[in-house]
Amino acid sequence: MNRPFTTLYLCLILFASATASYAAEVIIKHSTENELEFDLIIDAQSLEVLMNDDSSITLVDNLLIGIPFGSRVFLENVSTLKSSLFENKKAIDLSKIHKSANIVEISEPTTVRGKQFVALRLSPLTGNMIVEKMNIRLSFEGGQTNHSSTDVALSDKFFDKIFQSSIINYNQFKNWAPKKSRTSFALSANSAAHPFSITNNWFKISVNSNGLYSVSGSELSSAGLTLSNISSADMHLFNGSGLQLPIDNLTTRPQLSEVAIIMDDGGDGSFDQSDKFVFYGQATDRWLHNPIDTFVNNPYESNNIYWLSVSSFFNSNGLRMQPATLFSTPDTTVSTYRKLVHVEQDNKLRKWKNGVIEDYYNWFWTEQSSFEVFVSSPDIISSETADIFLAGRSYSSGGQSGYIDLTVNGSAGVNKLCNNFGCSYLTNSLINGLNSFSMTMNDRERQRAK
Predict the structure, then answer these.
(1) Most buried in the list 294, 312, 361, 401, measured by CB within 10 Å?
(2) What's this model's pTM, rounded to 2 decimal places?
């Protein structure tokens, strides 16, 4: 069967220089659990250039504001203290500047480790004038600020460092209580139904790629299972998805679900040395297809764990794959199909010129301005067009001119379209075998990065 290569995701870091964690200097005037007032001195040349869905451009800066958990945030005052004619040193097409109705906008609250903050989005360019200095006053209504003995976690030294480098009112924010736990860390009322509460004897099976896995009786015997009068029906396999856990400890955790297996016991209902069972295992980093194709990474674990128990204490037999019945004769022959291929290495965190790291979640492959990677595409139909998606990070406005030039086996990718977070291309230059993908930051973007 021929298999056309369809989609390639490459994670590449493209920024070469950054001047500060924020484009604005923050001067705190007043900070309490009820109110925050501060002045901003804005460096227009450090504003981030964003391309919107309608191809318009916005120059923005985002500030993170800590808030008491559960409080409502009100923008009480925005005063322009100084403005001037915008010096267009980045050669931005000012006719594409998005006409924002508000210079300051507030996001919905985000929760991390039981603490909450909002993002303040600044759009200080109006026409050909830039706001250089402004005063902002916020108020907080309601919310939880006082610690109590039932709080889950009062301090997290690792996240405290992240908060300290990103929350502008951190000195007040650090003293506010996290969200109260309703269950703390005790077992819930439903813990009796948890598989681990039924039996204490478990076998751990680790997988690191998608595919069918076979486990034999002799392998289980070597792992410590005594193969004596074992009923095949008593064998149960469980898995908890292997996906990254939510950051907020109060978010519902994935539950162990039983995995259907194919039992090959010779038909006698007894599991012996020469018997085996087969299951489909999934990697922690994999494609999810509902509702759209999305590639997910688990940054904390490379092995997905499956748990096997052999016990008669479960209230039902082990889950088994069932054969499907065809009710009609197949009338279609499938000779080709589209395939998704993901290529990524997580080698670097994004670090600003002053050494500050704001984001500890998004990793990048490299910070080189030129880069080549080789990707295998066996049995490809060379006449088919493949979509290529390149994930990167740049301050360019993107568009069809883009900021990354891509060649596939020496031929330029076509239909290029870029934004601040990556580019897409089309190509029909793939070959059956190993393919070269060469990426170069173009001359215009090199000059902007200097």
Answers:
(1) 401
(2) 0.59
